[in-house]
Each structure stands twice: as structure tokens, then as C-alpha cells.
Amino acid sequence: MRLTTKGRFAVTAMIDLALRQGNGPVTLSAISERQEISLSYLEQLFGKLRRHQIVESVRGPGGGYNLARKAADVSVADIIIAVDEPLDATQCGGKENCHSATHPGGPRCMTHDLWSTLNEKMVEYLDSVSLQDLVDQQKEHKLAETRSAEKQSVVVMHRPQAAA
């Protein structure tokens, strides 16, 4: 089980968008360039995000996308679910016919409850992380990088003092 690029790209694009809120609508072409995600792929993802009222589109010159609600009110689970990303660790997709997908009502595997519980924990965790949390995390990383770069670029030079 793993999160596909659909979910990863949607979350990445949403962080990019949220980081730029307050500066007007953000274009998908700008997100595409910064994050190296195909523009056509972003168009598909943002269509789904718009239908789930996570983003809103602004048409015309200077148009693009804005968040439809506050970043603190959007969870990572909201984003992943909006783009139809399956969060399922079970082999059967929750149908409990783990041994044979071709036989509905077949027996479930011995580890079904384990994987079902993992599903619940994943959704619970992703629901506890807001888009604002991720934005704040990115801002902290940028600040730390800036501080580190400033320390590395400071050159202290001393002139020999003339003897008195």
C-alpha cells in the first residue's frame, strides 16, 4: 500500500497555493513550473478540488485559483479524498473477500482487521494535519535555510592593527 502521485501532487500543489494566498489568484502554470508537475495533471486535480469546494477558480486576466476556505479548515485527508485517492491497506478494498475478489462473500483473510485498523489510523492522522500546519512547516524550513545561508555567507575580515 502506498500513496500514489495523485495524492502527493495534490497536497504539494495545495501547499504551494496556500503559501501564496493573499497575493491574488495563483495560476496552475505557476504551480506547475515551481513544483514540476504537469499542467494538464494539475488541471485534472484542481477540477476535483473545486468540485469538493476546497479551491475556487477566478476567471479572466489575473485569474487562477484561491483557497475556498481557510487553510486551517482543510485537512490533508480532505485533499486526498477529493482527488479520489484510495486510502486502503486491505487487499479486498474493504469488501472482506480478501482471498478471492471474484467470489463476493468469500472468506476474509486473517489480517483483515489489522489492515482495516491501519486504514482508520491513516485517515485519523491525515485528518489531524491541516493545510495550515504544512504551510507553517514550510515557512519554518525556509526561515531555517535563510539563517543557515546567512551564517555561511558572512565573512569576517580583520586588518592588522598598526603597532603604537
Automatic annotation (TrEMBL):
Entry keyword set: DNA-binding
- Note the Gene3D superfamilies from the entry: Winged helix-like DNA-binding domain superfamily/Winged helix DNA-binding domain
Q: Which InterPro entries match?
A: TF_HTH_IscR, Tscrpt_reg_Rrf2, WH-like_DNA-bd_sf, WH_DNA-bd_sf
On the tree of life, the source organism's domain of life is Bacteria
Identify this protein by name. Answer: Fe-S cluster assembly transcriptional regulator IscR
Question: Origin organism of this chain?
Answer: Herbaspirillum chlorophenolicum
